[in-house]
Amino acid sequence: GPAPSEMYAGLQELGVANGEDLKETLTNCTEPLKAIEQFQTENGVLLPSLQYALPFLDLHGTPRLEFHQSVFDELREKLLERVSAIALEGKVEERYKKLEDLLEKSFSLVKMPSIQPVVMCVMKHLPKVPEKKLKLVMADKDLYKACAVEVKRQIWQDNQALFGDEVSPLLKQYILEKENILFSNDISFLQNFFSPSPKTRRQGEVVQKLTQMIGKNVKLYDMVLQFLRTLFLRTRNVHYCTLRAELLMSLHDLEISEICTVDPCHKFTWCLDACIREKFVDNKRARELQGFLDGVKKGQEQVLGDLSMILCDPFAINTLALSTIRHLQDLVGQDTLPRESPDLLLLLRMLSLGQGAWDMIDSQVFKEPKMEAELITRFLPLLMSFVVDDHTFTVDQKLPSEEKGPIPYPSTIPEAFTKFLQENRIACEIGLYYILHITKQRNKNAFLRLLPALVETFSDLAFSDIFLHLLTGNLTLLGDEFALEEFCTSLFDGFFLTACSRKENVHRHVLRLLLHLHHKVAPAKLESLQKALEPTKQSGEAVKELYNQLTEKLELRKPSPAEVTETPSMELPLPTVPTPASR
């Protein structure tokens, strides 16, 4: 148990005798038994009826300690109930006055394990614990740990460094969780990084813990946002932007108006959240979002920094990009140009605000990035021409072919397309989503045509984790193509392997894909891939681990040498049947 000094901590200041006093009395007396009896009388429970009951308990062998302990526990329960009741009754000033008096009387006993819960309970119900007491709690690790979160909030709001120490491990955990999903060994086009609904994501452990820590405290909320901005600037990691939006929406779910009404992004984020849930920006919500952007007043431009961070959330970008691709397809059907579609222009405006978040927060220049005219007049019509090429090819395939030979699928890419993907961030983002779109449609021809454009893209976006996570998922739909040498050469040698040696994450994604599809890949190709993907001394643990898993799987597929050599000679000549490729 606790050291004696701790068990009685603070009793002396209150003029209550403790074990030390008894020891002193017994050391300096002639008749110990009498002294003990006197000590018991002076310090026992002062109820006349107990005078006769205690000897009766003694007869039953119940130790006095046990009796006093149970009386004490009862009283403590009653006291805790009473404190919680005081916190709710009477006029505000009066009830807090009562609690403050109680704290004054009991605080010296805060180190006594048996009394501590009562002191903590009093503090928990005080909206403002006296500064001096907070300082004492803060200076003592164990007391700080034992505090209710309501008291900790009062400590944190004036101690950013201490609050930072509490929040930091949660933020690390959050980023790790995101990366684990992106690199997960389960590859599927049905379930991916973007599958969970916003509401489900907000139930995550980190978001819930942060929400709990912040409570209704605007100052703490602002501190967390400041941490997120700083980390986003330092690392460029976009998952911090997701957390920014999730935190606000988690407080929104709990209807914490104290915070939601003072965050200027609240309504915008709420509307965008509904779009993310549908994975589409419909016309009504588009108008609403546009209203918020157009409504940013002179002198309040700083809010653009926050809005850009909300729009930089990968879940927002995903929604905007998917909506853009859908709009382009509709425009092809309506024979309309991109510049004639206000909805499409708004999507681009939000994409460019999101993609410009880092620069805006870094430079502290709060104005919307300029939209390049070429994006709208040249790049998007190019994408639309690819959609048209697909339609034409499909229709041609269906026409009777007596009078003409088969029409080949266009195999060259306009140079402008490649250049746009290299030089324009928004064009690159939309181009990558178009490639994901055709892969999902199992459009092998279009995929192989555009793939070479991905080797060099704006800030290597085609080798980013989110894109590769989605691409590997969609490629499972083209599984049967992996048996073809030509397809594998284009995909692996022409794309993945160009970056494997300089980018560890690409190495990981290729291994993930092969772990999933190795049984579909032509054996000769698989062997050369196994050589090409062997980890180097510089490779991290994750790559080595994946490579070992792949090697094990391939070992299991090889027939054992015994089976190969000792085929018993058959009496009857059998017709040779090609054996199906072993899975």
From TrEMBL:
GO terms for cellular component: NELF complex. It comes from the Eukaryota. Pfam families: COBRA1. Signal peptide: none annotated. InterPro entries: COBRA1. Residues 557-583 are annotated as: Disordered. PANTHER family: NEGATIVE ELONGATION FACTOR B, NEGATIVE ELONGATION FACTOR COMPLEX MEMBER B. This is NELFB factor. It comes from Oxyruncus cristatus (sharpbill). The gene is Nelfb.
